[in-house]
């Protein structure tokens, strides 16, 4: 049995699109980064299931059952391998579910010939979108309406107490910077290209920029930012991307929800990629003062840096750290990106 891809129209064997092992994403609906990974999964046409978690701690489905104390959402499991941070999740999904096996791609070829600028797109998504552009957006959340517990939780994530009045006072500056960044998108689209890196279909770059501006567009008080006389091509691109994702969503089955308990049991019992797939780069290990088997704590360098995940370092290359962690459900392998993450020897308890 064959089915056409909604974006390309090409025929793909149905069996080729079924994952060799389960894919489970831990998310919550209001999380913009969860939406980003939802869209990556849509673009790649990967069947998966989801565990809906709370929008703040505690999250026993992750911390207790899996032994993963990484603070941010989403995380995604492929079999027994758990991937943290959307940059590594996107990279892992592309590698493990390649277009050669009938899946979509987030790095399509250029429209006029040649392969996508894969490395540049990854750097663009991580360093410009996630690190520079996205932090401007949360200032427009309705902080005055949030309960104290939520504000305290987000303060812990940021590594300091949140001053609501100060956040609100920065909205004008944020709008100005969002406008400045949007002018760069307008410039990129000025030659009439359909997608940001002139690819045949949307790439990770389009997904990454879209999730930020689509989220901002949902807030009150930002209407002046989306001025069609100022950013005509950008707003056309934003609408085109929204329509593209909407068509993909209509063409794919609804994502099934499962409980954290069921998900953890399946993840713990599932096979994992051999450690040799990532390998252990001894040169990188020496540079970092780490060796295979070390007990380490891995955490982001920015938000969530006080919520390190501790485990045995089993693999390391220039893209990722892999550690073994153990929760009440059993042993799992937890992957973190190298970019903007650090692994340090775990502090030993004096007890």
Question: What does this 3D model show about the protein?
Answer:
InterPro entries: DUF7962, Glutathione-S-Trfase_C_sf, Glutathione_S-Trfase_N, Thioredoxin-like_sf. This is Glutathione s-transferase. Pfam families: DUF7962 (PF25907), GST_N_3 (PF13417). GO terms for molecular function: transferase activity. With 351 residues, the protein is an alpha+beta fold. The chain has 12 helices and 12 strands. It has a 10-stranded mixed sheet. α1 (32-44) packs across α8 and α4 (118-133) packs parallel to α8 (204-217). It is globular and about 60 Å long. The model is unreliable at 1-18 (pLDDT under 50).
Side by side, the strands of the main sheet go 7-4-3-5-6-11-10-9-8-12
Envelope shape: globular
Beta strands, count: 12
End-to-end span in angstroms?
61 Å
| Radius of gyration from the alpha-carbon trace, in angstroms | 21 Å
Q: What amount of the residues lies in strands?
A: 15-25%
Secondary structure class reads alpha+beta
Quaternary organization: single chain
Rounded mean pLDDT is: 93
Give the biggest beta sheet.
10 strands, mixed
Uncertain segments are: 1-18
Number of helices: 12
Can you give the helix content as a percent range? 25-40%
Q: What is the chain-wise order of helices and strands? A: EEEHEHEEHHHHHHHEHHHEEEEE
Organism: Mycena venus
GO molecular function: transferase activity
Protein name: Glutathione s-transferase
Pfam families: DUF7962 (PF25907), GST_N_3 (PF13417)
